[in-house]
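Ticket #4471: structure export looks truncated?
Reporter: QA, pipeline team
Priority: medium

Steps to reproduce: submit the single chain below to the structure queue and open the exported record.
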Amino acid sequence: MTLYDIIADLRREHANETASKTLDLVMIELGHSRDNLRDSLKRIDRQSVPPGGDAVLKELEERAHRGHLDNLTYPVVRLRGFRPPPEPVDEGMFGIAMLLGGTSLLLVVLAAAAVVAGLNGIYHFF
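Actual output as written to the record:
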């Protein structure tokens, strides 16, 4: 069971607007804290929690603590730019690329010819 499964269960069990808004606040903060519930609950502005939402937060915290999901730490994901392919391109791949590119070019030329022929049928250019 994951932290998000617990949140989904709470949404089903407490199917009201208060619980929904409270859990939405938790989900937003989980995105900022990389799924660490303890940090997320500390960062939630208590004034923005609707009346009755504190009970839902307490129940979420208890269930996550029982499942040892309340203090997860995931590393920061750093996305890098384009990386070269892991293996060099050989002649067979180059041939396939040329065939695909040539076929695409042929289809574009045929489509342009069909458009010109259709417009010529309407406007009698030549």
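Status: closed, not a bug. The export was complete when the record was re-opened. Leaving a note from the reviewer for reference: Residues 30 and 73 are 11 Å apart (CA to CA).
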